[in-house]
Amino acid sequence: MNNKGVTVVEILVSFVLISIIVVGMMNVVYLYRGKISTSNYRKQLITYKNTLTRDIYDDILTKKVKNVVRLSDRSIQIVFSDDSTKNLEVSDTSTEAGIKNKYISYGGQIYKIYEELPSEVTDLKKYESLKFTTNSVILTVDNLGTDVVYHVDIGINHIDMPDDFGLHLTFLRG
Fold first, then answer.
1. Cα angle: 97, vertex 100, 103; to 5 degrees
2. Could you tell me the pTM of the whole model?
3. CB pairs under 8 A, 24+ apart, for 94-101?
4. How far, in Å, CA of 116 to CA of 38, rounded?
5. First-to-last CA distance in the chain?
6. Partners of 167 in the beta sheet?
């Protein structure tokens, strides 16, 4: 007998093997796609932190700090040497749609983590997973009693990432 043709079993085995290879490759593609998305989100949070820190330190270095006053649990006021003031405030309130409105305002300018709320459910989940921890201002006087060191901490964490994206400022009075 001449068996030069392809049997149904051989075709079926070939199809199963190709299917296994394709599914494995798709898993790799989805894995890297998720890593790229997480990496982009991490970069966005780091940029947010760096922009806000730079703007605050620009004022601190040019105007010199006279005093820092706690206005509430989530708000402080920085008084500069020229008697001008700027408030630093954390907002973590719910909107009418039930979405947390998360941003930090400094000197009347609002620094939003997202310029517009994302429309995709996955990004919205990432946004909702971002947490502001309680901010605190610690005033420390050195041994001579002449210098006051201010520490301003606003913790920003994401439950899926171990990084701290918070604002941590340390500066001297005037």
1. 130
2. 0.69
3. 99/124, 99/127, 99/128, 100/127, 100/128
4. 19
5. 100
6. 154
- By three-state DSSP, how is residue 140 classified? strand
**Structural contact between residues 105 and 91, judged by C-beta atoms closer than 8 angstroms:** yes
Q: What share of the chain is helix, strand, coil (3-state, %, to 5)?
A: 35, 35, 25
pLDDT digit string (tens) for 9-51?
889 999 999 999 999 999 999 888 878 877 877 888 888 889 9
DSSP-assigned states of every residue in 42-89: HHHHHHHHHHHHHHHHHHHHHH-EEEEEEEETTEEEEEETTS-EEEEE
3-class DSSP state of 124: helix
Q: And the tokens for 91?
A: 């907002």
